[in-house]
């Protein structure tokens, strides 16, 4: 990285604390012309305070580990360039909203993944290795609906962005529901009806208010709101007696 | 707060309300032409089975729709869950149904 021509500094506020509470600490970080938010956090940990806790792994937008709240909005920090999100010379970094904090910038992802399980987001094969393979037509509408959501990296940015999750802790959230919609449309998943039943309970897809923050913030540019709408439509027809 | 049954009840009640709202507004526009009097309104509604069914259905749909909508708001704003939330929803439903039914009876029967 080359130092910015103006040799400017960034004024960075980082939330420090744990589940019992915390406050922002302030750091001055050198500004570079090509710098991600994760670079900034790493610089602080390496040069200012080695006890700063945060989570990352791949640094190329594949693992979904490094999501944080940056200037009030959820972002994947490894792929978020500072110059795209900075306000003046100030940067505020906090843990993801809607999840408990373990320490500093590391959010506890357990509730997020527990809701994946509750939404029946676990693939259950419809055949064993001894059965013939299910023929999958990549161009069929059902398969295309399934394929739209399979690139989810489980970063929880949508979950953090969702105002319905903030207001209703029982709500399964966009990621789990998008996973459910993928499985409903997957020919190789055993029982689509059990998935539809799971998302029809209190806190399921019908709690969504279609604000669209999930789709607006999804770093992989997926459309969880469309998936939730698909679940609402399908469960409504199922309620009226239409069989899948 | 919402499962599929409540969700469908709210959507179906909205479907019922949509034509009734249009009918209600259309009659309002028609009725105010050349002035509006109590006698004119009651002359149209009293003893009319059609208006009893029209507004009776309207009141029923509104009571269902509003009770479920307020249930969601109460759940999200105040964190109510379980029995208190159910009691609140039922109370809203019964209150709106009674008030609405009283108004419908007043303009169609007495």
Q: How many helical stretches of chain A?
A: 10
Number of strands of chain B: 0
Overall number of domains of chain B: 1
Instruction: Classify the helix fraction of chain A into a percent range.
Output: 25-40%
Shape of chain A: elongated
Mean pLDDT of chain B: 95
User: Helix content range of the residues of chain B, please?
Assistant: over 70%
Uncertain spans of chain B, ≥5 residues at pLDDT below 50?
none
Integer tally of domains of chain A: 2
Return the CATH topology of the largest domain in chain A.
Answer: Fumarate Reductase Iron-sulfur Protein, Chain B, domain 2
Report what the structure shows.
Chain A has helices at 37-47, 82-85, 110-118, 141-149, 157-161, 163-167, 174-184, 192-198, 213-217, 224-239; strands spanning 9-18, 21-30, 67-70, 73-76, 90-94, 101-103, 106-107. By secondary structure, chain A is an alpha+beta fold. Chain A has 2 domains: 9-107, Beta-grasp domain (Ubiquitin-like (UB roll)); 110-239, Orthogonal Bundle (Fumarate Reductase Iron-sulfur Protein, Chain B, domain 2), CATH 1.10.1060. In chain A, a hairpin with a 2-residue loop joins strand 1 and strand 2. The longest helix of chain A is centred in the last third of the chain and has 16 residues, at 224-239. The mean pLDDT of chain A is 94. Chain B is mostly helical. Chain B has helices spanning 4-31, 38-45, 49-78, 82-108. In chain B, helix 1 crosses helix 3 and helix 3 packs antiparallel against helix 4. The N and C termini of chain B lie far apart (40 Å). The mean pLDDT of chain B is 95. The interface between A and B is medium-sized, with 16 and 14 residues.
């Amino acid at each position: 990285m080359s130092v910015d021509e103006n040799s400017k500094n960034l004024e960075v506020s980082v939330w420090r604390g744990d589940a019992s509470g915390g406050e922002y600490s302030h750091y001055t970080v050198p500004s570079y012309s090509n710098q991600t938010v994760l670079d900034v956090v790493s610089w602080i940990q390496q040069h200012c305070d080695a006890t700063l806790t945060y989570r990352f792994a791949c640094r190329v937008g594949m693992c979904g580990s490094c999501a944080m709240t940056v200037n009030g909005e959820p972002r994947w920090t490894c792929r978020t360039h500072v110059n795209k999100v900075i306000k003046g010379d100030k940067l505020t970094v906090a843990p993801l909203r809607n999840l408990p904090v373990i320490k500093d910038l590391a959010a506890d992802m357990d509730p997020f993944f527990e809701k994946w399980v509750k939404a029946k987001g676990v693939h259950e094969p419809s055949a064993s290795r001894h059965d013939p393979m299910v023929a999958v037509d990549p161009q069929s509408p059902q398969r295309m609906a399934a394929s739209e959501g399979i690139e989810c990296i489980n970063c929880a940015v949508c979950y953090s962005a969702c105002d319905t999750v903030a207001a209703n802790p029982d709500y399964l959230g966009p990621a789990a529901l998008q996973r459910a919609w993928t499985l409903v449309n997957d020919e190789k998943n055993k029982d689509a009806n059990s998935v539809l039943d799971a998302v029809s309970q209190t806190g399921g897809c019908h709690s969504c208010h279609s604000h669209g923050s999930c789709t607006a913030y999804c770093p992989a540019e997926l459309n969880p709101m469309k998936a939730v709408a698909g679940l609402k439509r399908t469960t409504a027809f199922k309620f009226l007696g239409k069989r899948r | 707060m919402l499962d599929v049954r409540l969700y469908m009840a709210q959507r179906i009640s909205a479907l019922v309300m949509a034509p009734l709202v249009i009918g209600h507004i259309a009659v309002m526009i028609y009725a105010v032409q050349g002035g509006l009097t109590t006698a004119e309104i009651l002359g149209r509604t009293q003893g009319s089975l059609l208006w009893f069914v029209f507004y009776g259905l309207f009141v029923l749909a509104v009571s269902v729709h509003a009770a479920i909508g307020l249930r969601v708001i109460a759940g999200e704003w105040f964190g109510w869950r379980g029995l208190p939330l159910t009691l609140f929803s039922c109370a809203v439903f019964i209150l709106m149904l009674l008030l609405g039914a009283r108004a419908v009876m007043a303009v169609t029967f007495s």
